[in-house]
Design a protein that fits this description.
Helices cover about 35% and strands about 10% of the residues. It is mainly alpha-helical and about 100 residues long. The chain has a two-stranded antiparallel sheet. The protein is globular, with a radius of gyration of 16 Å.
Length: about 100
């Protein structure tokens, strides 16, 4: 699993989304949902394969990194009212998911 990175020390991210890249994304999403933790997949289809950009003529496999990311990115809950206990529950549930895989 990879967390978002902030490349510079003199800037702050607003985190309107907190997206992670993870193996077995769909299974993790289901596991979190069963625990009452809502998630979202904002771009399940990479931009170059969406109908709106069909006129550009791109095909699958032309942008493998984008295509892989579209299968791995999962947005976790993030909002001002999300308290520390809820954050810990999310982290613990993700940890439980991956611990059960080993």
């Amino acid at each position: 699993m990879r967390l978002p990175q902030v490349p510079q020390t003199n800037v702050r991210h607003v985190y309107n989304q907190f997206s992670i890249r993870c193996e077995e994304r769909d299974k993790l999403r289901e596991f979190l949902g069963e625990a009452g933790i809502q998630t979202e997949i904002y771009y399940p289809i990479p931009l170059h394969l969406q109908n709106a950009f069909g006129y550009l003529g791109y095909r699958a496999v032309q942008f493998p990194v984008s295509e892989r990311a579209s299968q791995e990115v999962l947005a976790l809950p993030v909002y001002p009212e999300l308290n520390e206990s809820q954050q810990e529950t999310i982290v613990r549930t993700i940890s439980d998911f991956y611990s059960s895989r080993n």
